[in-house]
Amino acid sequence: KAGVTQTPRYLIKTRGQQVTLSCSPISGHRSVSWYQQTPGQGLQFLFEYFSETQRNKGNFPGRFSGRQFSNSRSEMNVSTLELGDSALYLCASSWTGLNTEAFFGQGTRLTVV
Amino acid sequence: EDQVTQSPEALRLQEGESSSLNCSYTVSGLRGLFWYRQDPGKGPEFLFTLYSAGEEKEKERLKATLTKKESFLHITAPKPEDSATYLCAVQGTLNYGGSQGNLIFGKGTKLSVKP
Q1: Residue A49 pLDDT > 90
Q2: Is A55 helix (H, G, I), strand (E, B) or coil?
Q3: Mean pLDDT of chain A
Q4: Rounded-to-integer distance, Cα A99 and Cα B63, Å
Q5: Does B87 touch chain A (CB under 8 A)?
Q6: B105–A43: do the CB atoms touch at under 8 Å?
Q7: Does the beta carbon of B98 lie under 8 angstroms from any beta carbon of chain A?
Q8: Which tops the pLDDT comparison, B30 or A82?
């Protein structure tokens, strides 16, 4: 059974640019959540999508957005990149997002220069 | 506000030296408490889910327990391959002002096991 796949694994972007990250969940999972991980703040919740609808959102600026497609694949977009956006971005999938285990992908390492 | 505190931040053990990691939490209605293992440069790997106080789960050398305020991850006779960062997370009940279903993570405990 394939796990959660995130692409690309590594990205280097310049301040002011925008970036799109992709996540393919485990087959059958309908909930996809995104997290930002930094050494200082740890893992912080960005947003969750379930059946193509954003169901939950963390405390991040509007520059961070996402969407989910009918096949449950999800994309996350960050516009007007800042140096502080450098982090490991993790995607997690689960059956329903509630009361069930979430399985993480390997992450996308974003470096903003 | 929902929050999770893990201690210690770092733990060094000799191979075979058993110990416990602590996860203290505050959540408005607990849906579940989750333990993950994370190796450097990789995504967290799911270990356990605990749903109610008194519940225990085991996997190889690891055993997780849960009370109403904290969880422990007991490591029995650890091996060098157990070295990793162990993360604890809680999921709260929807419609509360806290986690609303998403996972709230602690900062983790970095475990090093020396041969």
Answers
A1: yes
A2: strand
A3: 94
A4: 20
A5: yes
A6: yes
A7: no
A8: A82
Test B105 with A42 for CB contact under 8 angstroms.
yes
* Facing B101 at nearest CB: one of A35, A92, A98: A98
Of B105, B112, B96, nearest to B39 by C-alpha is: B112
Taking an 8 Å cut-off on Cβ atoms, the answer to whether B44 and A58 are in contact is no
Give me the total of CB pairs closer than 8 Å, taking one residue from chain A and one from chain B.
Answer: 59
Give pLDDT, residue B26. 92
Give pLDDT, residue A1. Answer: 63
Whether A19 shows a pLDDT value over 50: the answer reads yes
Interior CA angle at A24 toward A23 and A28, to 5°?
A: 140
**pLDDT tens per residue, range A50-69:** 999 998 889 999 999 999 99
Choose the mutation target among B94, B102, B105, B107 for the interface with A, i.e. most A CBs under 10 Å.
B102
- Cα-to-chain-centroid distance, residue B51: 13
Of A48, A105, A106, the CB nearest to B102: A48
CA angle A76, A81, A85 (to 5 degrees): 75
Cα dihedral A104→A106→A111→B3 (10° resolution): 30
Give the pLDDT confidence of B48-83 residue by residue, as tens digits. Answer: 999 999 999 999 999 999 999 999 999 999 999 999
Instruction: Point out the residue among B32, B100, B107 whose CB comes nearest to the CB of A42.
Output: B107
Q: Which residue has the tokens 């590594």?
A: A10
- Residue A19 and residue A13 in contact, taking contact as beta carbons nearer than 8 Å: yes
